[in-house]
Amino acid sequence: MESFEHLRQTGGVSINDIHDEALIEHFVNGIGRRAFLLTPAFPFLFIGTIKDVVEDLLVMDVETTHIAQLENREWHIHIDSIEVFFIERDNGPRIPNVSD
């Protein structure tokens, strides 16, 4: 089996490329669903509905952050900047409505 370093040197696909594509595809499959995101940079927390994925940007209708003035807006979030996330699925747990 070839090493990933060898693949990188010969123009093959790297594990990082595979990871990035899989992550983008995961968010594409979540379009129309609610998601919870944490990022290392301000404003740190987003809860809302995934509207679209444009290349490696997540377009989200944000209903809740920890700063009320930033809520109820459309945000474009670089997928690489997302540290932790959860996307609701039909048979899984729901994200609580924390704005009440």
Tell me what the structure shows.
The structure is a single chain. Strands 4-3-2-1-5 form a five-stranded antiparallel beta sheet. The protein has 100 residues and is of the alpha+beta class. The mean pLDDT is 88. The longest helix is centred in the N-terminal third of the chain and has 14 residues, at 15-28. It is globular and about 50 Å long. Helices cover 20% and strands 33% of the residues. It is built from two helices and five strands. It has helices at 4-9, 15-28; strands at 34-38, 45-54, 57-64, 73-78, 84-87.
State the gist of this model.
The chain has 100 residues and is α+β, with helices and mostly antiparallel strands. The chain contains two helices and five strands. The model has no long low-confidence stretch (mean pLDDT 88).
Poorly predicted regions: none
Q: How do the helices and strands follow one another from N- to C-terminus?
A: HHEEEEE
What is the alpha-carbon Rg in Å?
16 Å
Range of helix content: 10-25%
Average pLDDT, to the nearest integer? 88
Count of extended strands: 5
* Largest sheet, strands/sense/barrel: 5 strands, antiparallel
Oligomer: single chain
| Structural class assignment | alpha+beta
Q: What percent of residues are in strands? A: 25-35%
Number of helices: 2
Distance between the termini: 54 Å
* Apparent shape: globular
Strand order within the widest beta sheet: 4-3-2-1-5
